[in-house]
C-alpha cells in the first residue's frame, strides 16, 4: 500500500488527472456515447484509490491484492483511463474501442479486465459487493483492504443502508468507501431530486466519516492513510464538480451522459493543453472486429472436502430442507481449519435449517437479518474471493425479490451456492404471497445459473455435496413438507448408496409403456405413488424425475416420449418444466400420442399443502384420476 505520498508523487497524480480527463473526452467522443461528466468529477478519486491500493498492474489477480470496487459503473471512462495510465490496460485500445462490440471496454466496467473486480449494474450494488469481499478477506485471514468508489445519488437506495449496517456489525475495519459528492444527476441537482444527508446516515450507523475536497490529491491521500488506522469502516465524502477540468462542462448536469461533439472536444482538449489526436482513434476503431470474446475471470480455487453422502431410510419421513441443512453443516465441519466456508442467512435459519452450520462454525455464520438484497450481493462477491459461500432463503426472497442481484451474480460468473426453501405451493398456509411459483422460469432467463430441484432428502444430500465442489452459481430449490424418501421397485432408496448425482441426468424411477409422467422436485413423490397404484390395476406408467430442469438430458430418455406424456410440476404451468419439455419435443420432432402440462394455473389459496396439490392436479389421487380418464 502506498501510504502517505510526497508532494512530488502527488504532482504526478495531478498531471495524470489532466491527461485522464482528455482520455475521457476522447473515448466518449469517438464512441459518440458514454458519461463524461461524472467520470471527470470522479477521476481524481479513482487515481487516488488505485494508486494507494496494494494492487500490482503486473500481477492484477494476485490473491493477496486489495480490491477496488466501482459502484457507479457508468463512470467507466474514468475507470478505464485510470487503469490505462497506471499500466493495467492499453490506453489506446481503451480510447479506440470504448463501447464498441469488438472491444472488452464496455459501457459499464466488466469483471476480468485487470483492475476491475466486479461488473456493476444498476446503482446501489457496490457497497454490498465491498462488504462481501471485506468479509471474505476477514474469514480467510488475509485482511486485505477493500475500497469502494460510489456516487452520491445512489446513497438514496435501501440496499446501501443494508450494507452500511452489515459493515459495522461485522467490524469491517478493512473497508473504505469514497463517495463522489458532485450533487448532480440526470434530472438536476441530487439534493432537489431526493435529498439524502449522507454524512448523518453513515455516522448514525457507526461509520467513521471524513469530508475532503474530492479534487485535492493531498486531502484524498491523507484520508486514505487515516483509514488504515481506523478501527471501524470509514467513508470519505469527496466534494466534487461535474465535468471538472473543462470550463464549459463544469457544473452542467447535461454532460452526465452526453459526449462532446468533435468541435467541442477540440476546445476541451485545447483547454486541458492536450493533443487532439481523435482522428487516429477513429481510424483504429474502424479496424475493430465485429464482436469480442467474453472476458475470462480469474478466481481463487475453492476445493472443499464434501464428505460421504447420508442415506435416509424410506420408512422414515423427513424433508429436503433438513437434508440440505445437515449437508451444509457437514461440509462446514469437514472444512473448518482448512478452507473458509460462509453461510449467509436472512433471519430464517430455523426454516432453512442452516442453523446446522451455525452449530459447527458460528463465527462464519453471517446473520444479515431482513436484508435480502444486500445478502444476495455480498454472498456473490464473497464467493469469488476463495470462500465457499452459501446463501439460504425462502424462494420468494432468494429468487424473486433478489432477481436483479442474482442476475448480476450470473453476469459476474460468481460461485455462490443458493438454497431456497418453501418453493411452490408446498409452503401451504402462508398463501399466495409466499408461494414461489416461478423459480424455474426466473432462472431460465439467466445464462449461467444451474438449478437443482431434488426429489427427496437422499437426492438433496448428494446434490448439495455436488454443487459445493462444482464451480459456478447454483440454486437448489426445496419444498417445506416431510416425505418418505423415494423407493425403487424393491422398496430400497432409489437415491441410495450406489446413486451418483450428475447434473442434467434424468432419473428413470419407474418404467412403463402406457403413459410417461415427467416431473420434478417433491411432485416426484406423488407421481411414484400414483404409478405404483396404477400398476396394480394393469396400467404401466413410467416416471421420469428431472432434477435439473435447465440442463435436462431428455435425449437419453427419449424412448419414453412415444407414449402419452404428462408433465407435472409444483410451479407456474406456463413457464416451468412443461414448457422446457415442450421445447425439446418440438425441436427434436418427437410427437407423443398426446402431451399435457399439469401445474399451478393461478395464485393459490392458503391451505394444507396436500389439499392444494389436490386442487392443482398434483396429488397422487388427482394423478390417478387423470390417467384413468385418459385410458378410458
Provide structural commentary.
The structure is a single chain. By secondary structure, this protein is α/β, with parallel strands linked by helices. 38% of the residues lie in helices and 15% in strands. It is built from 23 helices and 18 strands. It has a 6-stranded parallel β-sheet, sandwiched between helices. A 5-stranded parallel β-sheet has the order 1-2-3-5-4, with helices on both faces. It has a 5-stranded mixed β-sheet with strand order 14-16-15-17-18, sandwiched between helices. Helix 19 (457-469) links the parallel strand 11 (450-452) and strand 12. Helix 12 (320-335) packs parallel to helix 19 (457-469). The longest helix has 25 residues, at 7-31. The radius of gyration is 28 Å and the shape is elongated. It starts with 6 loop residues before the first helix and ends with a helix.
